[in-house]
Design goal:
Blueprint (H helix, E strand, L loop, with lengths): L1 H14 L18 E7 L2 E7 L2 H11 L7 E8 L12 E11 L10 H6 L1 H7 L1 E2 L5 E7 L2
Antiparallel strand pairs: 1-2, 1-6, 3-4, 3-5
Length: 141
């Protein structure tokens, strides 16, 4: 009888993800940084930034005080904190990011290209779309 209860419990636990239950903690909300939205070739992606120097660079770009328009950041798997970069399956590291005037070609591309070649881009380690245009900034500080 005890073995039957253990088996039923094990089956119930295994079925939880299929029922929509999650074993992970809820996502933390966006706070303590800025969310910058960029457009590249009619596609948009969002970058969560907590690096104070880069936050200032983003505001300088927004206010036309800088020409450094290329977000250059360490690429990570997943949509990021609070799924801020949905629907893409990747995000940029919120601390290891800077705004650049120019970058190397190997990390250039569209968000959809990064999505379709994610493992290749993860090998490169960075995403730096040359054609990026800042289209929005939300301050969560």
């Amino acid at each position: 009888m005890k073995n039957a209860r253990v088996l039923v419990l094990a089956v119930a636990i295994a079925a939880l993800p299929a029922c929509g239950a999650s074993s992970t903690a809820p996502e933390e909300p966006l706070e303590g940084g800025v969310l910058a939205t960029f457009r590249v070739s009619q596609e948009e992606f969002r970058v969560w930034v907590t690096n104070e120097a880069t936050i200032q660079q983003i505001f300088d770009l927004r206010d036309a005080k800088s020409s450094a328009s290329i977000p250059n950041g360490a690429l990570r798997e997943g949509q990021g904190r609070a799924d801020h970069n949905a629907p893409w399956t990747w995000h940029l590291d919120p601390i290891d990011i800077e705004m650049a005037d120019f970058t190397i070609e190997v990390c250039d591309g569209r968000p959809s290209l990064v999505d379709s070649l994610l493992q290749d881009y993860l090998t490169v380690g960075r995403f730096c779309p040359w054609g990026a245009e800042l289209v929005g900034v939300q301050d969560f500080r």
